[in-house]
Design a protein that fits this description.
The protein is about 20% helix and about 35% strand. The protein is α+β, with helices and mostly antiparallel strands.
Length: about 150
């Protein structure tokens, strides 16, 4: 059963450097041939300072940036071996491009326990607020985890 006193708890900050090559690789991996993700001149011609971040890129920030997330969730009593990914939501506040350095802080913003036929499940929502190297808020990412009991 989720400990509701953990709502509002924030984990330590983490950083991620947005690399031009990684933007290119991600666009290749998802089959996006838009030249703004592959060619600096095309990105600049479209009005960007550098290669822009593809819209769903924050999904990978957990793996490239916040490599301690699973240990952090365990530290507040979440059984990470029983976690299912529920949903992901992004709110872009300002542009993010290659050579930006983002700092993310993940906070537990909601948690509840639901009864099921087999027992119960916990539904946990985290929000990661990202700021860039200028301390400008650029992105908020919400993630819902379902913890099967």
């Amino acid at each position: 059963m989720f400990d509701k006193e953990k709502v509002g708890y924030s984990f330590p900050a983490f950083m991620i450097m947005i690399e031009r090559g990684k933007i290119h690789e991600l666009a290749l991996a998802i089959g996006d041939e838009n030249p703004i993700y592959h060619d600096l001149e095309a990105a600049k011609a479209a009005g960007y300072d550098d290669l822009p971040l593809p819209p769903t890129a924050p999904t990978i920030f957990t793996f490239w940036g916040n490599t301690q997330l699973w240990e952090q969730l365990s530290s507040v009593g979440i059984n990470v071996a029983r976690v299912l990914h529920g949903e992901e939501e992004y709110e872009y506040v300002a542009p993010i491009a290659a050579n930006d350095t983002l700092t993310g802080v993940t906070t537990i913003v909601d948690g509840k326990t639901r009864r099921t036929r087999e027992g119960s499940m916990d539904i946990l929502t985290t929000e990661t607020r990202y700021t860039n190297q200028h301390q400008q808020h650029v992105l908020s990412a919400k993630t819902m985890f379902i913890v099967r009991e």
